[in-house]
Amino acid sequence: xxxxxxxxxxxxxxxxxxxxxxxxxxxxxxxxxxxxxxxxxxxxxxxxxxxxxxxxxxxxxxxxxxxxxxxxxxxxxxxxxxxxxxxxxxxxxxxxxxxxxxxxxxxxxxxxxxxxxxxxxxxxxxxxxxxxxxxxxxxxxxxxxxxxxxxxxxxxxxxxxxxxxxxxxxxxxxxxxxxxxxxxxxxxxxxxxxxxxxxxxxxxxxxxxxxxxxxxxxxxxxxxxxxxxxxxxxxxxxxxxxxxxxxx
Length: 248
Ligand SMILES: C[S@@+](CC[C@H](N)C(=O)[O-])C[C@H]1O[C@@H](n2cnc3c(N)ncnc32)[C@H](O)[C@@H]1O
Hints:
binds S-adenosylmethionine, 12 helices, 2 domains, Rossmann fold, alpha/beta
C-alpha cells in the first residue's frame, strides 16, 4: 500500500480513492490483527503474528519508504512466491526478508536453512532473523551492494526471492539490485518479486538494459493488500559491464 502511495499520480489517486496515510495505516494494522485468519492466509501462531505486525508497523513508522508495507506478507503470498522453488535450486538468495515469512516458506518447501542467504537492511529485522534462522546466513546490508559481496563462497544460486518495495526505489537502485542479484545467479535461475501494483515493479528500461524479462505467475487476494508475483529471467545476454558497473 505504501508502494502505491509513492507511485500514484493525482489523476490515478482520483480514480482509485484516497492514499494511505500514517493514521489509516495504523488503523489497517489494528484491523489486520482483528481480522479472521482465513481472510489473511495462514495464522499458525496468532500472538507471534501479532507481535510481527506491531514490529512491522514500528519499522514502517521509522522508515516508511524502506519498509514499504505496514504488515508482514501473508502465508498465501509466501506460498505463491516460493511455489516454483525446489530443493535443487539451492542455494537461494532472499532480499528484504523482514520477519522471515518467505524464509519460513522456503524451509517448509525443503530448502536447507544453511543454503539460504538473507539480505536485510534493517538492523532490528536482521537480529530477529538471526534468532529465528540461526543456520541461515543473514547479511545486514543493502541489496543494492550485492555485486561487491561474496555469497556462498562464489557458488551461484538457483533462485532469488524479493520482498523489497521496489516501487519506492529509484530506477538506479533497482538496476543495482537486479544487476547485483543476477551476478550471483546461475544462467537459468529466476528472480521472484511481489508487488501491490498493477504491473511488474521493475521498469521496462531496466529489464531491457539487463537482458531480462518478467512474467506474472499469479496473484492472491489473501494478503493485505492483494499482491501479484512476477518471475524475472534472463532472455538475452546483457553487456557484462552492466553487471559490474552497479556495485554500489
Ligand atoms: C515490504 S517489506 C517485506 C518483508 C517480508 N519479505 C514480507 O513479505 O513480509 C520490505 C523489507 O525489505 C527491507 N529492505 C528495504 N530496503 C532494503 C535494501 N535496500 N536491502 C535489503 N533490504 C531492504 C526492509 O527492511 C523490509 O524488511
